[in-house]
Amino acid sequence: MRAVFAPAVMPERRPQARLLVLGDTAEFSSLAELPRQLARGDVLVVNDAATLPASLMGTHVESGGAIELRLVAAQDAATGVWQALLFGAGDWRTKTEERSSPPAVAVGDSLQFADCFAALVEDVDEHTPRLLRMRLPVTGIYCAGKPVQYAYHRRELALWDHQTIFASRPVAVEPPSSAMHFTWNLVFSLQRRGVEVVRLTHATGISSSGDAAIDARLPFPERYRIPPATARAINAARKAGRRVIAVGTGAMRALESAALGDGTLPAAGAEDVTALRITAAHERCIVSGLVTGMHDEGASHLELLASLVEPAKLAEAYREAAAKGFLWHEYGDLTLILARPKATES
Amino acid sequence: MNAPMRYERQRVLVTGASRGLGEALVRKLTQSGARVVALSRDGEKLAVLARETGAHAIVADVAQKEAAYAIAGEVVHALGGVDLIIHNAGYLGATPLRLLADTDCEDLERSLAVNVVGPFRLTKALLPSLLLDRGGTVVTLSSDAAVSAYPHWGAYSVGKAALDHLARIFAAELESHGVRFLALDPGDMRTAMHFAAIPDADPEKLRDPARVAEEMLAFLARARDAEGVRFSASAWREVLK
């Protein structure tokens, strides 16, 4: 049976968003009650990625054809090398399958983005000629880019709609939406409770391109950075038997990717690219809990959740949550999963 | 005065950087080893300043709502974070200065946009860098017009009074989380803004912005010794004695 999962259609921050708490039992609470669910010494790891305006309208100089370039993933933050997807004329209002195909683009061709900047195509994917590699300056992206839109929202999203309160490093192309309803008031009350709040950066990539061939290859490798102070806090917590709770699946993937064989993080922190796909079979090293959105069936996120909770238990809780009016998707309600400590965890 | 200042590798944002005190702050900070983002609407002057000082230039208007997250993103991209924000950009109001009774609504709105809402928005957009990192300092520029009710200075005064209070409220909420807020009155300076307000002002009686920048940075380096949020032009200089 397929449950009806209603999307949140108003892109609004809701500090009172509902929170499905999955531990030994299922509890239906609210985000404002999160401090009560956590204990002194727990470490909450947030993603400080800021979301870029990832849709760039421009012109293919050689053909004169109108294009949209959609950022997919930052390949190298230092040099500004991006993987990006080319669309033909039109924008997010046009259904993906109804959009005209983009002009054929070759290595060395030039794309001009209004008065902001021009960039050369450095590589064209051999399987998907719409997938390009280009050098795009951050200033240029902010100048020419528009925030990515979701068809089910009742109004057009502005750049600030895409930022969480933690938004700092401009590397994400979609918002790390698990923290969308967080407020500083909540963070401070967590801290008063004795919960340690630390940061990492995970460059959230696109979740869907509208192209089946490309979507089958998702998620593309994503960059992450774990500062030394965060690594030290997490190692100390784990040594003392305290819990590490990731806010967002991206934060969880970064932490599990950086884990060393002995279940610690490198003391100097980590900066790398990860293509780690977390599934039920994954041996969790660092993370013992996760705050995340409400995910659709079939999404790779659900696969990841199976590493923390039995899929049947999650499915039942989701059905109950849907019946209680929980909202799905970006700006939807949230789930806190607290996994049982593994036998190997002391 | 050549006191050593602790600005080596400090990451600083200065708004209103193309002239006057802002420009002087950028020059002193870069000389002291700070990594600086200089922000102004004036792209040409900013380009020269960036070339001469090595500061990173951002051409933007702090009053523009759409610009806030782009500015914050560029600052963090350029510096990796931020330790000190100096909200120096200000708007005097239409000149010649006029009675509040003769002030256009739009002009008062512009004052609030530049002097209050812009710094609020930019502070907010950069807060994660301050609150999740090692703390930091946010400086707003005050004026005696923020305290005294001088006729003809209405649009500016209202904006500056509100900005002082913005700093006070932020301080009350965030100082226990490691972020210091300071509202500093630099005093009357030999700047284009001052002559726009008082065309026949005697230059000899006005402070040199380069000297004020130096004093202000010396104060900020020792601000731990000073309690409070708002400091009059003489109060913060007391700390330097």
Essential attributes:
heterodimer; A: 346 residues; alpha+beta; six-stranded antiparallel barrel; 18 strands; 19% helix; B: 241 residues; alpha/beta; seven-stranded parallel beta sheet; 8 helices; globular
First and last CA, distance of chain A: 39 Å
Overall outline of chain B: globular
Tally of helical runs of chain A: 8
Low-confidence stretches of chain A: none
CA-atom Rg of chain B in angstroms:
17 Å
Characterization of this structure:
- The complex is a heterodimer of chains A (346) and B (241).
- Chain A has 346 residues and is of the alpha+beta class.
- Chain A has eight helices and 18 strands.
- In chain A, the strands form three sheets. In chain A, strands 2-1-18-17-15-3-13-14-16 form a nine-stranded mixed sheet.
- Chain A starts with 17 loop residues before the first strand and ends in an 8-residue tail after the last strand.
- Chain B is α/β, with parallel strands linked by helices.
- Chain B contains eight helices and seven strands; from the N terminus they run E-H-E-H-E-H-E-H-E-H-E-H-H-E-H.
- A seven-stranded parallel sheet of chain B has the order 3-2-1-4-5-6-7, sandwiched between helices.
- Chain B is globular and about 45 Å long.
- The model of chain B has no long low-confidence stretch (mean pLDDT 95).
- The chains are: A alpha+beta (346), B alpha/beta (241).
- The interface between A and B is medium-sized, with 25 and 18 residues.
